[in-house]
Design brief:
Blueprint (H helix, E strand, L loop, with lengths): L1 E4 L2 E3 L5 E7 L7 E9 L6 E7 L4 E3 L7 E6 L4 E6 L8 E9 L4 E3 L3 E5 L2
Length: 115
């Protein structure tokens, strides 16, 4: 089970920190875990991922502004979002893919960047 938290309303240029509580999996159980987002009328977009080995990858639109991290002991995935822009507004999802290629998704958390 993946449960996101930390979304909300923030002004442009502000910061937010999203968290994903992971239960039922350890870092050895999945190939990669990460954050995705989807805005109304747009396709789902990869934001940032981290493999079980710790390799991170970021979408072009968030490079240099967002940072993904993982606490294996607490089974928590975090996304630190800085310099937020209105274009970052979306529902953010935590998801992982296991070694059998099956994917698991959280329910999502809304992020709105607006003045």
């Amino acid at each position: 089970q993946l449960v996101e938290s930390g979304g909300g309303l923030v002004q442009p240029g502000g910061s937010l920190r999203l968290s994903c509580a992971v239960s039922g999996f350890t870092s050895a159980d999945y190939y990669a875990i990460g954050w995705f987002r989807q805005a109304p009328g747009k396709e789902r977009e990869r934001v940032a991922t981290i493999t079980s080995g710790g390799i991170t990858n970021y979408g072009d639109r968030v490079k240099g502004r967002f940072a993904i991290s993982r606490d294996n002991a607490r089974r928590t995935l975090t996304l630190q979002m800085n310099s937020l822009e209105p274009g970052d507004s979306a529902v953010y999802y935590c998801a992982l893919i296991d070694y059998r290629g099956r994917d698991y998704w959280g329910q999502g958390t809304q992020v709105t960047v607006s003045s």
